[in-house]
Amino acid sequence: MSPVAPKIVAFCCEQSGVLALDMAKSSNAKLPDNLELVPVPCSGRIETLYLLRALESGADGVVVFACYEENCRYLQGNIRLKSRVGYAKQLLAKIGLEPERLEIFPLATNSGVKCAEFLMRKSDQLGALGPNLGKTAKE
Amino acid sequence: MIKAEQKPFEEILEYLAPYDKILLSGCGACVTVCHAGGEKDAALLASALRMARQKMGKPLEILESTPARQCEPEFAEELSETIGQVQAVLSVSCGVGVQTLARRYTATQIYPGVNTTFLGETVAHGVWEERCQACGNCILEKTAGVCPIARCAKQLLNGPCGGSANGKCEIKRETDCAWQLIYDRSKSLGQLHRLTEIIPAKQWGTQSRDSGPRRIAREDLKV
């Protein structure tokens, strides 16, 4: 029986990430198994709590697809996100979890191939780290 | 408002080591404003604690509840049914809220999840500074709205010390000299003459906390 692929929750900004992933799918780029996509109107909508709750609820890793800095439609949404991800990583370290389980990937709408490649690398990285021992949700 | 900071995570984990089911009680007032113990902050702390304990192989069930104000008996009463279901309470309200719960729920250990630090103002997003020491005798009308008790490191009442330089305090160079602020603001109000009035020495023994915990009783409000 093949091992279960790491669960990745990807928060996707609707201004960039969602469209990039659509492009990845339509060009038949390989995406990891066990991927859950969560669209958000702007990456600035993502609160620190959502990042931790995603891990608590069963994700082995959380990624955020956000617009490049200076490209945010709402001006500073991705800047706010960056601070929150930084804080969440500090919390992960205190919990005893690897900060690499959480990552921002800045991209544009036409970054379908890069986005898919990043997700495959992330899946491999999370596979090497092993399952998230902090998750409380049962599989 | 009252300002507080969450206690170190390791310290909180140590408090909770003996338990496997607790209530994490936030407060919808002061600690919400300074992001130490509001509903969201409590939820974030609860998530982190659950993950840490899961990783340790000692799962911790955490019920969450955030009354509007933890320092009022009526709001503390709202927690009675929930507290009956848990082994201990972690309160991320200020010290007043913790003590209000402790007075009401004498059979349940109430742990403080924050360090209550000062009475302060929001000066920028995410930045709070001390403004009031609750000294019991406000003289802000004499000092153009700048408190020398809270903001002068030496709590001087009649002008700066000799160490004030370039508008900064000699004790903490990054801090504005309170008396420089008082002077500047008095000047902008056209009230420099007020600074020639001598403010008498403070009666710490009768007006402030120095002679024990204080009490206000309003007979007209008693039921």
Describe this structure in words.
The complex is a heterodimer of chains A (139) and B (223). The two termini of chain A are 16 Å apart. Chain A is an alpha/beta fold and 139 residues long. Chain A has four helices and four strands; from the N terminus they run βαβαβαβα. Chain A has a four-stranded parallel sheet with strand order 2-1-3-4, sandwiched between helices. Chain B folds into two domains: 2-118, Rossmann fold; 133-210, no CATH class. Chain B is an alpha/beta fold and 223 residues long. Chain B has nine helices and seven strands. In chain B, the strands form two sheets. Chain B has a four-stranded parallel sheet, with helices on both faces. The mean pLDDT of chain B is 96. Chain B has helices at residues 9-16, 30-33, 39-55, 73-77, 80-83, 95-104, 148-151, 178-189, 204-207; strands spanning 2-6, 21-25, 61-65, 88-91, 109-112, 114-124, 127-132. The chains are: A alpha/beta (139), B alpha/beta (223).
Assigned CATH class of chain A: Alpha Beta
In N-to-C order, the SSE pattern of chain B is EHEHHEHHEHEEEHHH
Number of helices of chain A: 4
CATH superfamily of the largest domain in chain B: Response regulator
> Quick one: which chains have the greatest interface?
A-B, 16 and 14 residues
Query: Unreliable segments of chain B (pLDDT under 50, ≥5 consecutive)?
Result: none
**Oligomer status:** heterodimer
CATH class of the largest domain in chain B: Alpha Beta
Helix content of chain A: 40-55%
Report mean pLDDT of chain A, rounded to a whole number. Answer: 95
Q: Which stretches of chain A of 5+ consecutive residues score pLDDT under 50?
A: none
Whole-angstrom Rg of chain A: 14 Å
- By CATH, the superfamily of chain A comes out as Lumazine/riboflavin synthase
The SS-based structural class of chain B is alpha/beta
Give the proportion of residues in helices of chain B. 25-40%
Number of helices of chain B: 9
Shape of chain A: globular
